[in-house]
Amino acid sequence: MYAAHVDIGNRGSFFPLGVLSESAFKQQFAETGFWQKEEGTLLISAADTPLAGHIEFFKPVGYWDAFELSYQLYDQQFAGRGRVSEAVQLMADYLFAVKKQYRIQLDIVPENAASRRIAEKCGFQLEGTARGAFFNAGRNQDLLIYSLLRDDPRGEADYWADRLTDQSVESARSRSSPSRIRSSPNANSTSSSHRPSTPS
C-alpha cells in the first residue's frame, strides 16, 4: 500500500526517509511487480493483518557477488514476534536456492540493537564497520556489515532449510507460524540508493 510507503512516521530511527511519488510507485509496480532478477520486494503479513511490513533484496555493489537485504515493520505492534527473523531466514533460503550469489549481507546502524540480534539469530557474521557510510536524519552514520555465505553454518536458519526441502515455503509457513511472506502490489520500495536493514 502506497500509504505505508509515504508514512515516514512508521520507519523508526534507522530506516531511510526517502519516498517515491505515487505515480512513480505505481509505474514501478506496473512495469516490474516489484520483482526483478536482481532485486525484489515481498510483504511480511500475519493472520491478523495482510500488511505488517516488507523485506527486499538488491545488489549492494554492482561487481559484488552478493545481495543485501532490507526490511521494515510498519508498526511497533508487529515487533518482537519473530516475524522479521523468519522473513530473513526464508529470504536467505530462497536466494541461495535459486540465485548464484555466494553472499548475503545486512548493513545495520550500530545503535539498532534489534536488527543486530536478528542478524546473529539468523547466522550472519559481523565483518566490520563502514565508517560514516550512511547519511540519514541529517547526519552521516556508521554501518555494521554482517554477512552470510552460502557455505556458512546457519544456526536457526538450518531449521527452516531442513523443513523446506520437500515442501513449498507457503505450506511450511502455514503449518508452523501465523505469519507469512507473499508478493503484493502493496509492497514498499524506498527511493534511497542504500537501504540498511531495520525492523523499525
Tell me what you see in this structure:
With 200 residues, the chain is an alpha+beta fold. The chain has one domain (2-182): 3-Layer(aba) Sandwich (Aminopeptidase). 28% of the residues lie in helices and 29% in strands. The protein has a seven-stranded mixed β-sheet. Strand 5 and strand 6 form a beta hairpin. The longest helix has 16 residues, at 83-98. The model is unreliable at 163-194 and 196-200 (pLDDT under 50).
Layout: helices, strands, pairs:
Elements: H1 2-6, H2 22-32, E1 39-46, E2 49-58, E3 66-73, H3 83-98, E4 103-108, H4 113-121, E5 125-136, E6 139-149, H5 156-163, H6 169-176, E7 180-182
Parallel strand pairs: 3-4
Antiparallel strand pairs: 1-2, 1-7, 2-3, 4-6, 5-6
Helix pairs in contact: 3-5
Order of strands in the sheet with most strands: 5-6-4-3-2-1-7
Low-confidence stretches: 163-194, 196-200
Q: What would you say the CATH architecture is? A: 3-Layer(aba) Sandwich
Report the C-alpha radius of gyration, rounded. 16 Å
In the CATH scheme, the class would be: Alpha Beta
Strand elements, count: 7
- Oligomeric organization of the protein chains: single chain
CATH superfamily: Gcn5-related N-acetyltransferase (GNAT)
- Overall mean pLDDT score? 78
Strand proportion, as a percent range, falls in: 25-35%
Number of helices: 6
- Domain module count: 1
Measured between the Cα atoms of the first and last residue, the distance is 17 Å
